[in-house]
Amino acid sequence: MSMDAALTTNIIASTLMVLTYAYLYIQYKHSYLVKWLTAWIIHEVRIIFLEKAFIDQSSLYLGIMYGVLVFAHCLLLTAGTMELAGKKFSVIWLSGCILVLFFSVIGRLMGLPTEAYLLPGAIYIAFAYASTARAVSQINNGLGVWLTAGGFFLLGIHALDMPFLFQIRWFAPWGYLMDALLRSTVAIGIVLIYFEKLRVELAEKEKYYRLLADNATDVIYRYQLIRPVGFEYISPSVKKLTGYDPAEIKTLRNVMRIIHPADRGNFKKLIKPPIGLNDFTTLRVVHKNGDILWVEPKQNVIANSDGQPLAIEGIMRDITKRVLLEQDVARLDRLNIVGQMAANLAHEVRNPLTTVRGYLQLFGNKREFQHYKEQFTLLLDELDRTNHIITEYLALSKNKSIEMKKCNLNEIILTIHPLIKADAVSFNIETVLELGKIPNLYLDDKEIKQLILNFTRNAIEAMPSGGKLTITTTIDSKGTILSVADQGPGIPQQVLENLGKPFLTTKATGTGLGMAICYRIAHRHNAKLDINTGPAGTTINIRFETIN
User: Which of 318, 341, 373 is the last residue of a domain?
Assistant: First the structure.
């Protein structure tokens, strides 16, 4: 093989390495990529412009420049590889390089044999490559490690034979070819190590993000819009939200089962592009145990370069408590408005009504008006009904004073049970009391009686064909619970959503204030109302805080 062919091969190999590392640096911007890129540029410049001058030993200055480039290539290649391996590059290497280069220049000026002034540099390079090979071998056991470590080790051995063999004309081309092969092996090995390092880092990041997603309180999901269409990922927190494992709701059909029937149309819009992909809305889902929860999805569409949607990624947050709180606040705002009206209006209206009623009674008892007796009775009944409505208005007054004292809820229920039973019997309804052992509570007994009577009358009216009315008291870790359950047809959804709104009624003769009064009484007692309704009946739970 000719020397020109060997050098050309070396230049081609170096050019490929320069292009490879330039591409890697443009993509990833790591500092050790800069060191490798610079090292291979220096190596290529040295071969193109100074290699023949070194072989011919024609110029001292070109020889010094050649030596500087050799050591620079060696140091940068070693420094970059050490950085990749996580090892510290010591300044001793730079000091040793300067010292060896100085010795080589002095040796040449003194006329020492070529082997004598080149050997210290060869030993230095061999030691540097051997140290780098040792550092690389400790990274892992992949192919890239073995190629790089082996290549550096063989380059070190090859550096030791250079002072003795490069002047042998028939061997020199093979030496350069071997050098190109070993350096290419090192470069390929480094690329393999680098990509293996990237793969491990990506796997660690994926593991980290997967851990975050799996432990997030919000539900994180990815829905694929192209085949195979379906949920590619749903975080485990969906079980806490819905009661279902992620594997149980991977398909759209299974997901639709847990979406509230009234919200399925909105949900379909969210997952069918392009409508609604970035909408921010609320949905209701049905828990495995039958509870209805409010959720708030926020999602983004993932598209390809042509703008075609590929997938939807998003989170779904449980906002049930927030929605219920907003409903309570809205309900209380409405009650406050009515309460203010009641406080101002009731007293103004009640006084003239009392006067009117008194005169009607007076005139009704006069002999000359006896043939109008029925009309007077009707007028008095209507006035009494008006007075009753005003009384209900007053019950909504925000500033109504209440007398809180230690009471036993069971005793209050037993006191009014005869009234409840009398109402129930006329509708062929059985009343059942399931009164547990409960602690005393701070209550206004008059208001609690009104609360219970309102709920029981609603329950009785919900069962015109008969049934069972059950009043229960229990205690749990959160407080004392009063429950009123009926076997009626349940409360319609549109009524349930507006329950407690003043003047909302489904009765022909109702005022629409009964439930509003109950919510106001519960609020004054710092109690929480919870309503469970369905085709089998309705249960109203009132939770009172236990006295500490």
Answer: 318
Taking the C-alpha atoms of residue 108 and residue 175, their distance in angstroms, rounded to an integer, is 23
Could you tell me if 76 and 192 lie in one domain? yes
Do 178 and 111 lie in one domain? The reply is yes
For the stretch 50-83, pLDDT in tens is 776 666 666 777 778 878 888 888 888 788 877 8
For the CA atoms of 66, 67, 68, 72, the dihedral, rounded to the nearest 10 degrees, stands at 100
Q: Are 154 and 130 in contact (CB under 8 A)?
A: no
Taking every pair of C-alpha atoms in the chain, what is the biggest distance, in angstroms?
Answer: 155
What's the domain count of the chain?
A: 4
The string of pLDDT tens digits covering residues 346-370 is 667 777 888 888 888 888 888 888 8
Same domain, 343 and 485: no
Pairing of strands 283-286, 230-234: unpaired
- What's the rounded Cα separation, in Å, for the pair 244 and 246? 6
Domain with 413 in it: 405-544
Which residue type does 359 have?
Y
* 487 and 386 within one domain: no
> Which tokens in the block code for residue 34?
């800069």
Q: What is the mean pLDDT of residues 438-457?
A: 90
C-alpha 125/C-alpha 76 separation (Å) is: 12
Q: What are phi and psi of 93, to 5 degrees?
A: -60, -40
Q: Of 293, 318, 343, which marks where a domain is finished?
A: 318
Query: Which H/E stretch holds residue 207?
Result: helix 172-215
Q: Mean of the pLDDT values across residues 489-508?
A: 70
What pLDDT is recorded for position 507? 58
Tokens 């089962």 belong to residue: 257
Q: How many residues does the chain have?
A: 548
| 172, 166 contact by CB (below 8 A) | yes
CA pair distance 485, 132, nearest whole angstrom: 81
Report pLDDT for 118.
Answer: 78
The CATH number of the domain holding residue 243 is 3.30.450.20
Shared-domain flag, residues 328 and 314: no
